[in-house]
Design a protein that fits this description.
Distance between the termini: 22 Å
CATH architecture of the largest domain: 6 Propeller
CATH class of the largest domain: Mainly Beta
Number of strands: 56
Shape: globular
Helix content: under 10%
Largest sheet: 4 strands, mixed
Number of domains: 3
CATH topology of the largest domain: Neuraminidase
Strand order of the largest sheet: 1-2-3-56
Radius of gyration: 28 Å
Number of helices: 1
Length: 601
């Protein structure tokens, strides 16, 4: 009989408590609690949508292809019912306009990848339907052989521009179409028809294995599966709809959005997931819509633009789907500060951090260094203070501003051993925020009294006033660098959720926090950040920023305000704060995180 080590590759270890070094599935003996334990990653049990950057041209009745990191949208109609041939390429963050389609049209179908796509069918506003087909090679569209049947509002499936399946749709939107055509890279061939005629339907898959669902007229929830030869009816959608979008394969697909009220419009946010035998309702879109561009798989898909609202109009919003099984972040207890305090500042990473200043009370200049497990007292600030800002790394940090009292502009630079007084801020203030990679390049913004929007840039020698925040506030969260920073939350008054992004020259308003709050903690970059804690009250709320939008994630264990944070969006520290009273608690944020299980009889 094989031993545990022979089967797993490691010996059973003895560890007092939870073993932070254990790999997935590794068994250990917890000698403190007399228990056998193992751990595995925490993952999501269902998928969800998250807002991404807008497309450049709002439109509806378009098509999409590719993936969430290499996508393409093309065609459609923009306000006011103007046909467009515009094509946009997606890199996972931003949309870029590329070469237009040759034939301007809407209600098109398409398939493929970002570098190898096909667009076919469609109509104009009059309406004139088309049988045109165009091939995309990654740079330009080229007209190729036409469809055998002129029609619009069908759906397409296919891996690239050499193989496609076009099903449903018609030249007359009042007449349901059953036609199916197959593209072999050169020509279209009529093949066996759908069982249920329809247009404005959704679909997924490839040329030899596809799925069709929903559509009109009449509005239907029927679904059919294509095996390369014939269509077979399978389990219905839960919600009848038309203008529905799709992504995935014929055994694992998403039905996204749609409309339930032709012709006046009542767009949906509903999303359903197909497992090869049945449909199940899952988490909704943030923006209801139909007739959008979509592509991807059940683990990772996108939907872009489309028609939304009643009365309906075009949207530019992009949303990205992350399926079940994605890594989940969580807070865990770290080593406590030696000196409990609030209104402190911090710098560094999760495993090499610095905490300095604060209010114990009274105000303090104490500085502590963190090694990933424990805090150690090091040399104090020259000026004891609370409500200060901090930036940098553990060997090159900067402390600025605060309340000594009085409010001060004092700035100190840390070299890994000692703090040295350097040139002051131009504007004395407290409860400001800061960003910066080290002690030679930093940004200070916000604060009081009175409530401030002033921003100052540090070049290693002097502070220079630069362009102000759009929203004056004190107690904002802040992170990033001197050329790419984020400011979020604060007290304006009232408490605000406003978020602004700094590009090295100007602040731009972006999407707000979900929870308005002040004196919160932050960690990360302008494109990937974490916001946690704050007031009013003593909040546990944590939100994650992806460069476009905030979503709530796992809460802090200890609710608190006037805390500090440092690190990244996937490996952060929440340090000190008011619990009340002043707290010494440190919590560590990790993505991924683990669940520890105890074996029992």
């Amino acid at each position: 009989m094989a031993t545990y080590k022979e089967e797993v590759g490691t010996a059973v270890t003895n560890y007092a408590g939870n073993n932070p070094g254990a790999v997935e599935g590794e068994l250990w003996y917890d000698s403190s609690n007399y228990a056998w334990k193992y751990q595995y990653p925490t993952v999501t049990t269902s998928g969800s949508w998250r807002t991404g950057n807008n497309v450049n041209s709002a439109r509806r009745f378009l098509a999409g292809s590719g993936t969430t990191t290499a996508g393409l949208i093309f065609g459609g109609s923009g306000p006011p019912s103007t046909m467009v041939g515009k094509t946009e390429s997606f890199d996972g963050t931003n949309w870029t306009e590329v070469s237009d389609m040759t034939q301007v049209r809407q209600s098109v179908a398409g398939n493929g990848t970002q570098t190898s796509s096909l667009v076919y069918g469609g109509n104009a506003a009059n309406p004139t339907s088309y049988n045109n087909t165009e091939l995309w090679n990654g740079s330009n569209w080229t007209e190729v052989n036409n469809l055998t049947t002129t029609r619009a509002s069908g759906y397409g499936a296919g891996a690239d521009n050499t193989s496609a399946l076009f099903f449903g749709g018609s030249a007359d939107p009042s007449i349901p179409g059953t036609e199916t055509e197959l593209w072999n890279g050169t020509n279209w061939t009529e093949v066996n028809n759908l069982n249920t005629g329809r247009g404005s339907l959704g679909g997924a898959g490839i040329q030899t294995a596809a799925l069709a669902f929903g559509g009109t007229p009449p509005m239907t929830n029927k679904a059919e599966q294509w095996n390369g030869t014939n269509w077979t009816e399978v389990a219905d959608l839960n919600t009848s709809r038309y203008g529905v979008n799709g992504a995935g394969t014929y055994t694992a697909a998403l039905a996204i959005g749609g409309d339930t009220n032709p012709p006046s419009g009542a767009s949906l946010a509903n999303t359903e997931i197909w497992n090869g035998s049945s449909w199940a309702e899952t988490n909704d879109l943030s923006t209801d819509r139909d007739a959008a561009g979509s592509a991807g798989t059940t683990p990772a898909a996108f939907i872009a633009a489309g028609r939304t609202g009643v009365p309906s109009g075009e949207t530019a919003v992009t949303e990205e789907w992350t399926g079940a099984g994605a890594a989940v972040g969580a807070w865990a207890t770290g080593g406590s500060l030696n000196t409990a305090r609030a209104r402190l500042a911090a710098s560094g990473t999760q495993t090499e951090a610095l905490a300095f200043g604060g209010d114990t009370p009274p105000v303090t200049g104490k500085t502590e260094s963190y090694n990933g497990s424990n805090w150690t007292e090091v040399n104090d600030l020259n000026t004891a203070r609370k409500g200060l800002g901090g930036a940098g790394i553990v060997t090159a940090s900067l402390a600025m501003g605060g309340d000594a009292p009085p409010y001060t502009g004092a700035t100190e630079s840390f070299n890994g051993t000692n703090w040295t007084e350097v040139n002051d801020l131009n504007t004395a203030r407290e409860r400001l925020a800061a960003a910066g990679a080290n002690n030679t390049a930093a940004l200070a913004f916000g604060g009081r009294d009175p409530i401030k929007n002033e921003t100052e840039l540090w070049n290693g020698t002097n502070w220079t006033e630069v362009n102000n925040l759009n929203t004056a506030r004190y107690g904002p969260g802040g992170d990033g660098t001197s050329t790419a920073a984020l400011a979020f939350g604060g007290f304006a008054p009232p408490y605000t959720a406003a978020t602004e992004s700094w590009n090295g020259t100007n602040w731009t308003e972006v999407n707000d926090l979900n929870t308005a709050r002040s004196v919160l903690g932050g960690a990360g970059l302008s494109t990937a950040s974490l916001a946690f804690g704050g007031e009013p009250g003593y909040k546990t709320v944590t939100e994650d920023w992806n460069g476009v939008s905030w979503v709530e994630v796992a809460d802090l264990s200890t609710g608190r305000a006037n805390l500090s944070g440092t690190g990244t969006a996937t490996a952060a520290l929440a340090i000190g704060g008011d619990a009340p009273p002043a707290s010494a608690a440190t919590e560590e944020w990790n993505v991924p995180s683990n669940v520890v299980k105890t074996l029992s009889d």
